[in-house]
């Protein structure tokens, strides 16, 4: 499916609303202090809120006349344009269920503007997917292809990222026993959580900084 940005702007009704994006690796540093994890060592700053504007994914898929669930349309896959070093230099990709993609209550959009300006390269120009309530890893930047398939996307990063495996499973066991492919350990929706930013962990505050 190839759609130019001007077609998105002129051919569909646009939506605009604020969304807070959170990386699933947010606060991973705190976990690493207990047991070293695979992936990032970020604090509590992997989060941001912006005003996003784009067209509903549902409207685009309907225009393309995708198959029904009965005829095999089960997954909507998103693939970015960039080549990444892992997985044989695979492009980043992931998918969501077709029912979710077609649900009008989900507000999933193909975004081309952020805070009243066209997306910058860092934030996914020309188009990225925005899925409110989901982890940032599902919101593919530099979106190049949308594919509706029967099976889950076989992309390396769809299976190897954004999973929470049991504490006894290390990378060696995960590879040997195919834990990456168990659907019960996938992370999609993210619960609201809070964090104290000041004082930070182990920070010592001088007594004279307190005022009455």
UniProtKB/TrEMBL annotation:
GO biological process: oxoacid metabolic process; sulfur compound metabolic process
Coiled-coil portions: none
InterPro entries linked: Mopterin_OxRdtase_euk (IPR008335), OxRdtase_Mopterin-bd_dom (IPR000572), OxRdtase_Mopterin-bd_sf (IPR036374)
SUPFAM superfamilies the record matches: Oxidoreductase molybdopterin-binding domain (SSF56524)
Domain Oxidoreductase molybdopterin-binding: 2-157
Signal peptide: none
Pfam families registered for this protein in UniProt: Oxidored_molyb (PF00174)
Official protein name in the record: Oxidoreductase molybdopterin-binding domain-containing protein
Molecular function, one GO term: sulfite oxidase activity
Lineage of origin: Eukaryota, Viridiplantae, Streptophyta, Embryophyta, Tracheophyta
């Amino acid at each position: 499916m190839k759609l130019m940005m001007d077609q998105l702007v002129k051919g569909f009704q646009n939506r605009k609303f604020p969304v807070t994006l959170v990386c699933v690796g947010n606060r991973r540093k705190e976990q690493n202090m207990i047991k070293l994890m695979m992936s990032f060592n970020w604090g509590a700053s992997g989060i941001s809120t912006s005003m996003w504007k784009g067209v509903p994914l549902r409207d685009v898929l309907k225009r393309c006349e995708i198959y029904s669930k009965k005829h095999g349309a089960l997954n909507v896959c998103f693939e970015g344009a960039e080549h990444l070093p892992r997985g044989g230099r695979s492009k980043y990709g992931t998918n969501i269920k077709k029912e979710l993609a077609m649900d009008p209550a989900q507000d999933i959009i193909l975004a081309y503007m952020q805070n009243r300006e066209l997306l910058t390269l860092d934030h996914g120009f020309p188009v990225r997917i925005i899925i409110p309530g989901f982890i940032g890893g599902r919101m593919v930047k530099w979106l190049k292809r949308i594919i509706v398939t029967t099976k889950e996307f076989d992309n390396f990063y769809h299976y190897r990222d954004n999973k929470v495996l049991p504490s006894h499973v290390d990378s060696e066991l995960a590879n040997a026993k195919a834990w990456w492919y168990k659907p019960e350990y996938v992370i999609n929706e993210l619960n609201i959580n809070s964090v104290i930013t000041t004082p930070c962990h182990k920070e010592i505050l001088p007594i004279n900084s307190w005022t009455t």
